[in-house]
Amino acid sequence: MNIERKVAIVTGGSSGLGQATAERILAAGGRVAIFDIDRQRGQAFAEAHAGKAIHIDVDVVLEESVRAGIRATLDAFGAIHICVNCAGVGQPRRASVHDTHSAAEFTRILQLHLVGTYNVTRLAGAQMMDNEPLARSGERGVIVNTAALDAQHNGSNQLAYSACTAGVAGMTRPLTLAMSTYGIRVCAIMPGVFDTPFKANLSPDARASLVTASRFPKREGDPAEFAALVGHIIENPYLNGEVIRLDGGAHPPSR
Length: 255
Ligand SMILES: NC(=O)c1ccc[n+]([C@@H]2O[C@H](COP(=O)([O-])OP(=O)(O)OC[C@H]3O[C@@H](n4cnc5c(N)ncnc54)[C@H](O)[C@@H]3O)[C@@H](O)[C@H]2O)c1
Description:
Elements: E1 7-11, H1 16-27, E2 31-35, H2 39-48, E3 53-56, H3 63-77, E4 82-85, H4 103-128, E5 141-146, H5 159-170, H6 172-180, E6 184-191, H7 204-213, H8 223-235, E7 243-246
Parallel strand pairs: 1-2, 1-4, 2-3, 4-5, 5-6, 6-7
Residues 11-12, 14-18, 35-38, 58-61, 86-89, 112-113, 116, 146, 148, 191, 193-194, 196-199 line the site of nicotinamide-adenine-dinucleotide.
């Protein structure tokens, strides 16, 4: 899908990977609605890109909040073609046999990362179904979800976070089956460690060990590199149903 003049929802767009994605879409001539509970940063971004970007105070966990965000996006830009889910928070506490998450904490993390991603995906996807298919590709929409390397490697002891990012990765194919009928593609990205405020919850040791785990290049990812992959997924009409690792070839150690 050519991004020019297309309308994108970017959840978590006030910061980090979401903000870099919003910048990438704007640079390609698209319009962006940021869905984020961080009003201050979201509004500052929207003001810096007045007429092309808006911030809507959406909590992705709450269905009614997402529905209101979608209505506001349609009011501002008239359609939704792209949805990129980046909303999330770091999980400071690990789980062990002596100190498992409480059910409440486990549920909170799942609500945000897994249910939140699902809420926005299904409601934005339903809206995309109303789009006229694009003349050459037949596409009506593209959805990109964010999982994490923790979904796949056995060394992570971020129990709830691993479970929900595995859920985000795992729902990619079923979503593809459901959405492809309507010309909507769905992919997910599984980032390694990226240089964003998200990692503030990790100890310096944990961050260093994650960087060491990268084969090449041996450094944290740049959010612009994540955004570049989002841009490619949107622009490549043959890419569908994939969960793509973006981690410098990492083999993370146990932590
Ligand atoms: N940074 C990394 O190393 C890394 C690695 C793997 C996966 N991820 C995933 O990428 C996503 C984005 O991470 P980031 O690094 O950009 O983090 P970030 O902290 O820079 O940005 C996350 C944004 O999500 C917003 N947010 C939090 N809860 C929300 C809610 N309920 N509704 C709407 N917005 C909400 C925050 O306000 C913030 O602006 C997260 O889901 C995270 O799990 C990040």
